[in-house]
Design brief:
By secondary structure, the protein is mainly β. The protein folds into 2 domains: 65 residues, no CATH class; 152 residues, Jelly Rolls (Sandwich), CATH 2.60.120. The chain has 2 helices and 17 strands. Strands 7, 9, 10, 11, 13, 15 and 16 form a 7-stranded antiparallel beta sheet that branches. Strands 5, 6, 8, 12, 14 and 17 form a 6-stranded antiparallel beta sheet that branches. It has a two-stranded antiparallel ribbon with strand order 1-2. A hairpin with a 3-residue loop joins strand 9 and strand 10. It starts with 5 loop residues before the first strand and ends with a strand.
Length: 222
Amino acid sequence: MGITHTKVATIADDPNAEVGSDEWNADHVGVFDATVPVTQAHGDAAATGSAAVAARRDHVHGMPVAPLDLWVGAPNPGVGTTSGTLAANAAYLICFQVFRAVTVSNTIIKVATQSGNIDVGIYSSDGTTATRLGSTGSIACPAVSVRSVNALTAGVDLVPGTRYFAAFAADNATASLGIVTGLTPMVNPATYGGSIATSFPLPATITQASLATGSRPIILFE
């Protein structure tokens, strides 16, 4: 943002004027320079700003990179989690919301056992139907990793006020990934998420009333 400084006007002063008198104040009037405001965004580097008066410069401070990672399914990685398998060809959905507009392009999961193919995606919800916004599509299950990054086929724009579901499905019951443990099953799967059979690869839409209680995979978007 632009910072406006004051500079003393170049008015010939009377050395005999009493400090604080009207004459002294008139000779030392403070003139505010108009600046061109600089709007900064997360990730901007430090630089010299713009100023309307060449004799003065305002400065642009570096900004931290905006956090984009969205953990879905657990408070944070490593807390109340373990590795486990899920039913073959079933989709597992977990609800989430965002508090600022963000575009996500990647999904990140923990892969404990590599096997077959997987599909990870995002759905929006109107309360009745979950509609797929984007996914990785059916891809080979990545190698074992605590942070396996997999690109969505296209970026997905997320906005506050909308309920979303993070979704995971595999074509086999051998692939093992990070899941939540020690939590009571969702009392209302249609609202908060659950599982549905015969859903690999992830279908275009899912009827939320068909969701049953199930495990909760941990999915990260960025």
